[in-house]
Amino acid sequence: MSPTTVALAMLIIIIACILLNKIPMNFVMFMVPLICLLMLDKNHNVFEASKVILNQINIVMSGAGYMLMFGIIYFSMLTETGLFEIVINKMISMLGERMNMVVIMIMTTAISCVAYLTANMSTTYLIVFPVMLSLYKKYNIDRNIAFILCQTAVSAMCWLPWGIGVVNSAMMAGVSPEELAVASVPWGLCFIPAIILQWVYFAFTHKRKNGTLGLPANSVDVAGASTQKKEGEDMTRPQFFWINLIIFAAAVAALAYFKIPSYLVFIIAAILTAMINYPKDFGKIWNKSGTTFFNVLIMLLGICFYLAAFNAKFVDGVLTASVPQNVQTTSMVTSLANAMTGIFPEFLLKYMFLIFLILVVPIIHFIPYQVYNTMYPLFISIGASFGMTSMAIIAPFVCNLGLATSVTPMNSATYVGCTLCEIEVDHFCNWGGVIMFFTNLIVIAVAIVAGVLVL
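Above: the chain's sequence. Below: its structure in token form.
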């Protein structure tokens, strides 16, 4: 069987399992890619397949996995201390009657933009959602909205040259990250009207549902109720508020300004927080905070299996974990990308990149975003025949791709965000996919009107 056929079969099976929801998703993500790898390998070498998968796990864990593990533990622990509840209550008392849903949405967007200076989506979620969740509960605001607003703000900031997305795209496009970042900044600015329209739409739907943009009549004092529960469990530590806040601020500065590896920052912050707040019950707080990461870890490993199968290299039909330089290889992802270009009519080739840009959200819902990265050279070569520069082809994807990566079950960061927001992944991906699809269209329309996208 050809890599293209197996890749399509794997996609169809996984898509069917997502839609039917009859088989545990973790089982599908572990077994289907492994079977597809063995089918393509002439030798059906399970040991070589294991090496490929372990290599992918090492890449993901070193790049994001350890950061997620210690980050979730730290922020779960910090939430237990009551730090964020105190901050939220102080904000509410300062704003008084001025606090309403619109203010909360603006705060979410602003905090998300600042938090993404870390250039890591999962880290941004870990900073934003614990801070804002109590407000969303108190004002009876759908927490799915918090995720959408945060991700849209993050997408507008995806041009940061030290972000992994810019670096990967620049490598695929054969340009420097700094050059690509400069070309992508105008696209980030095109998000401003889309963000404002999101505020208007969510405010309209919220008021229609609750009858007010302010504090609902039946509002429950979430912060107070939460504090009472935690005091009963002897987990809140209001007496250490300032120490915890200083550690939190230092962690953000270490990530955003000093660029210290995130997993080290979170390890140190978690240890300091535990030692200061829970010197006599380390085990209890570590166990309670650590269980939050378990479900994310399982799905993260499943995605590693999936990405390993998609990106695995074959030399003359033989699966190879270590490929020497200058050796021609095939893979499912490159074969699928070539097949996609082959089905396009000639008169649409000039607009091929734009079609994929418009459809980025529904496509990324079902396949890894890495497929888009591997197609950049094809987009560039086709665009060059029509006199288009590589920057004009790739820059639109840098920010807009971020709109899609949060509303797909194929991205581990989605599970981090949904866990922190206490929302269902399937519902968010389906509902959020529609919102992000139209947000993407608005950004593209603004770019055309502003002359950022020249057709």
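The beta strands are 313-315, 318-320.
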